[in-house]
Amino acid sequence: MRPVFKDLANPELLKKCLHGGTQNPNESVNNVIWSRVPKKTFVQLEVLSLGTYDAVSSFNMGNVSKLEILRKMCIEPGDYGTGDGVPRQRGCYEQNTIVYKKQRKLGRKKRLKRKKEDDELLKNADDLEYGAKMF
User: Fold this and answer.
1) Fewer CB within 10 Å, N or C, the chain?
2) What CA–CA distance (Å, rounded) separates 54 from 66?
3) Rounded Cα distance, 18 and 12, in Å
4) pLDDT tens-place string over residues 38-60
5) Can you say whether residue 38 is alpha, beta or left, with left for phi > 0 and alpha for psi between -120 and 50 degrees?
């Protein structure tokens, strides 16, 4: 376990966690590891080591590492797999958030328009008379 810890405590590796400077770099790596393999659940050594390898590769390379692992297993990821992981690694995160904000704004406008139309129908509904066979 010590060689793994020494590898994880490498300053070059830990520089990636210091963007905000508020979290201890070792705690950031530990958080990724324990999210894959919870402390409260007993697992055997093989599962623990696989979870650690997955967490470290995701920590180092992001979602691209999972795609590389699939390719080495001769499994070609589909459009949904590559579409979710790769754009974030290419630096398109800002562009994705802008598109997402535009979509949310359009959704809000549609909901507001629908609500106004419903309110108009309710106002006009007061003038309607209800009776047998009117519909």
Assistant:
1) C
2) 8
3) 11
4) 888 898 999 999 999 988 888 88
5) beta
- Name the region of 129 (left: φ>0; alpha: ψ -120 to 50; beta: rest): beta
Positive/negative CA dihedral, 124, 129, 134, 135: positive
Q: What is the pLDDT of residue 124?
A: 75
Whole-structure pTM over 0.70, yes or no? no
The position carrying tokens 């050594």 is 45
Compute the CA torsion angle 13, 18, 22, 27 (nearest 10 deg).
-10
Q: Cα–Cα distance between 9 and 26 in angstroms, integer?
A: 7
Residues 1-17: what's their mean pLDDT? 75
Q: Left (φ > 0), alpha (ψ -120 to 50) or beta: where does 10 sit?
A: beta
DSSP secondary structure code for residue 18 in this structure: T
Nearest to 15 by CA among 29, 32, 34, 3: 29
